[in-house]
Amino acid sequence: MNVMLTILLAVQMISAVAMVGLILVQHGKGADMGAAFGSGGSGSLFGASGSANFLSRTTAVLASVFFVSTLALAYFGTPRTATPSGSVLENAALTAPASVVSAPVIPASGAGQIPVK
Fold it and tell me: Fewer beta carbons below 10 Å: N end or C end of the chain?
């Protein structure tokens, strides 16, 4: 089980670092306006329109890998104990301590003089 958690953690960290790198490499929407007037370089590896599609799809795949590995880590990383069936409140009542010692109630300065029926 520890090996699987280590592999999931490694997959999550690699996908997070790769996702950050891909997001930093992508151009924003405002960069297209500057590239249209000649101020931006259009000599990318995948062409002007292909790079955004490839990078955005790869980022989406890495984001889904990241979320799936996060959910798997949360599921497999939580220790499970055998609990009896029933409601949550019944299970909480079973696990509560049997005897609870309460501190004596000290009345406020004038509350002890009020008659109680």
Answer: C
Residue 58 lies in a domain: yes
Count of other CB atoms within 10 angstroms of residue 62: 20
Instruction: Examine residue 117 and state whether it is found in any structural domain, yes or no.
Output: no
Q: What is the DSSP string of 102-113?
A: PPPPPP-TTGGG
Domain that holds residue 56: 1-20+46-80
Q: Report the distance separating Cα 71 and Cα 11, nearest Å.
A: 12
Question: Which of 16-25, 77-86, 87-96: highest mean pLDDT?
Answer: 16-25
The answer to whether position 33 is within a domain reads: no
**What single letter denotes the amino acid at residue 106?**
I
Indicate the angle between helix axes 50-77 and 2-25, nearest 10 degrees: 150
Check pLDDT > 90 for residue 13: yes
* Amino acid occupying residue 1: M
Q: pLDDT tens-digit profile of 51-69?
A: 568 888 999 999 999 999 9
